[in-house]
Amino acid sequence: MAANRVGAYGADDDIVDYILGITFEIWEQRGVELIRQYYAGDCVIYGLDGITHGADAVVDSTWATLQAFPDRLLLAENVIWAGNRADGYYTSHRLLSMATNEGPTVYGPATGIRIRMTNIADCVIEDGVIVREWLVRDNMTLATQLGADPVAAARMMAERRSTELGDWIASEIERVRAVTLPETNSSANTPREDPEGFAWHVLNSCWSGDWETFENTHAPYSVLHRSPMRHYSGRDQVFGYYQNLRRVLGHVHFSVDHIATQPFGDDGVDIAVRWTAAGLHEGEVEGIGPTGKPMFIMGVTHWRCIAGRIAIEMTVFDDLAVLSQTLVD
C-alpha cells in the first residue's frame, strides 16, 4: 500500500466502528503503514511472548507475520468497551485469525497448513490513537496446527525470552501475590449491577474450587471456548477444566485488572475481564513434571451472561508461553 495513505478512521468515530475499521484496513487491506497513524510512537504492547515498544516495531512485526501468513484474515467476533471520547476508551476486541502458512516461522519452514486461532487485544485509546495494548495470543494452537512439538516450541520460546520480559513477569508475579479479595466478594454480586464484584466472585470460585459458587454463577448449559479446537459444554465440564488447571498451577493468587461491559439483549450483558494469575508449577503438563518454578498467566475472558448467569465464555491466554516458564533456566 502507498506509504502516504491516510486511514479512514479518527478520534470522533464510533469506537466499535473504529476498532473494526482499522483492523480491516491494516490486515485485510494490507495498509500496514497505517499503524503509524493508529498507534502512538511510544505505545507499549504487552504479551507473554514479548513486549513491543513503538509503532515502528508494530509495523515490522506485522510485515513479518504477513510474510509467513500472506492471506491472514482477522475476523471480528466481539468488541466489548468502556470509556468515552473525552476520557479515552478501553476496548477488548476478540477475533478469529485464519491464515495459510506460506513462509517460514519460528516453528520451521512453510507447511502450507491452514490455521485457525483466537486472539484478544485489549487497547487503551486516546484521541484516536492506541497508546497501550495487552495482547493475548493462542500460540499453543498455532504451534500444534503447524506440527510443532509443544515442549520443543516452548523451549524455543524460553530461549528467546528477553531480560525485559523476564523482569516484567517477575514484577507482575510480585504484584499479583500481594492482591487480596475485595470485601464486595459475595453472593449478592450480579453481572449487570456489579460486574467487577461478579468477576472477582467467579474467578475466585474457579481458582479455589468452590463448586457451590460456580454452580450459582454459571447456567447448566454454559459453554467454555478455549480455542477454535477446544470446547467444554455444560457447567460440569467447564468447572472440570478449571480444576485441571489448578492441578498444574498451585498456590494461586489472582487479580482482576480491568472490566468492560456492554448490554446484550433485553436483560443480558457482555463482560470483558482482563485478569492475571500467579502460582507455582505443581502438576504435570505436556509430560513435564512439577518443577516448583513460578508460573504467570495473563488472560482475557469474555462472558455472555443471560438471566444473571454465565451462558458463554471465551477465554484466551498463551498456554505455550506459560509452558515455557517451566523451561526457563
Q: Could you give a short description of this structure?
A:
The protein is an alpha+beta fold and 329 residues long. It has helices at residues 15-28, 35-38, 55-68, 139-145, 150-160, 163-177, 195-208, 211-217, 235-248, 319-324, and strands at residues 39-47, 50-53, 73-84, 88-100, 114-126, 129-137, 218-227, 230-233, 249-264, 268-281, 294-306, 309-316. Helix 7 crosses helix 8 (211-217).
Topology:
Elements: H1 15-28, H2 35-38, E1 39-47, E2 50-53, H3 55-68, E3 73-84, E4 88-100, E5 114-126, E6 129-137, H4 139-145, H5 150-160, H6 163-177, H7 195-208, H8 211-217, E7 218-227, E8 230-233, H9 235-248, E9 249-264, E10 268-281, E11 294-306, E12 309-316, H10 319-324
Parallel strand pairs: 1-6, 7-12
Antiparallel strand pairs: 1-2, 3-4, 4-5, 5-6, 7-8, 9-10, 10-11, 11-12
Descriptive report:
There is one protein chain. The protein is of the alpha+beta class. It has ten helices and twelve strands. The protein has a six-stranded mixed beta sheet with strand order 2-1-6-5-4-3. A hairpin with a 2-residue loop joins strand 7 and strand 8. The chain is globular, with a radius of gyration of 20 Å.
Distance between the termini: 43 Å
Largest sheet: spatial strand order? 2-1-6-5-4-3
Q: Give the H and E element order.
A: HHEEHEEEEHHHHHEEHEEEEH
Mean pLDDT: 95
* Parts with pLDDT < 50 across at least 5 consecutive residues: none
Estimated radius of gyration: 20 Å
Number of helices: 10
Characterize the quaternary organization of these chains. Answer: single chain
Shape: globular
Q: Could you describe the largest sheet, including whether it forms a barrel? A: 6 strands, mixed
**Fraction of helical residues:** 25-40%
Q: Based on DSSP secondary structure assignment, what is the total number of beta strands?
A: 12
Summing up helix and strand content along with how strands pair, one would put the structural category as: alpha+beta
Assess the beta-strand content as a share of residues. Answer: 35-45%
